[in-house]
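Memo to structure team: turn this sequence into structure tokens by end of day. - J.P.
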Amino acid sequence: MAEILTQTGFDKLLLTLDADREQAGAKYESLRVRLIKFFEWRNCERAEELTDAVFDRVIKKVAMGEQIENIAAYAATVAQFIFKEDCRRRERLFESIEDVPEAQIAAQANAFAEESETEDERMNCLEKCLAEFSGENRRLVIAYYDTDERTMIATRKRLADEMKISLNILRIRVCRLKAKLEDCTRDCCRKI
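Reply from structure team:
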């Protein structure tokens, strides 16, 4: 149902933007760029993900049949709310970070050090690339993948709930972070 709702909602959003599908697509892209800039100007590291969250909410409203005359103005208002929510979430996350035991982080680093030399080089690249991420993004990637198969779904749902985002947005964020991490690690390994 969610997939149908999203596609139907997106189609309705495009129709609201313009009756001509091509013009609607251009207006959508223009609005997307403006929203990304809105978040970038406010020093948000995750401007694209926050923009996705704006569109997620706007599409849900449109899909429910709500008539929105000025989509750009409505999206800008939603973006302001999402920005405030993100600021509060970052503050809470920063406070909870201080509770993470250093021994746990050190134990994980020691476990990696016991790998073979090739594996060590790859792990060094991985750690170097992870270190380039913001603390928040680094913890998100680790929390997302640090689970076994039995508890994976529940863990990821809990993580999404803690961040007050949908599971789909969480997957998109982690997927983007993973792609950046893989590219960085691959480039680092080539240099060795």
